[in-house]
Amino acid sequence: MELAQVRLLVTDFAACYRFYGDVLGLKPQSGSAEGPYEKFSPAVGSAGIALQDRSMMAEVLDEVGETATGHRSLVVLRVDALDAYCEEITLRGATVLHGPVRLTDRMRVAHLKDPEGNLVELQEWLLLRG
What we know:
Layout: E1 6-10, H1 13-23, E2 27-28, E3 37-41, E4 49-53, H2 54-60, E5 74-78, H3 82-91, E6 96-104, E7 107-113, E8 119-125
Parallel strand pairs: 1-4, 5-8
Antiparallel strand pairs: 2-3, 3-4, 6-7, 7-8
GO molecular function: dioxygenase activity
Domain VOC: 2-125
Pfam families: Glyoxalase
């Protein structure tokens, strides 16, 4: 088994596309800024984040509904220099809600939300520093 992607069901596709592409700096697969689907990949690694228009999935599964309630996901991205990355994405429109702070002796984190309210955790792995 292989993890292909984490897919987020969103209602404002264009805003989320801009957030994951322009603000966080992930690379879109096809450039389909209007949706209803797009996969984003970081510069390193094989995992990806995909966006799908929530109404499209609601046509397939009635229980999905048109809007989400509560936190149902947490996207986790590893970065090499957390403080610098947080400064960079803040200049591009992100709002860091928490951190950067040390979470454990092995990791520092910061938290933000995408335009749909999905939580995003940025991790800096301290063990990789040597």
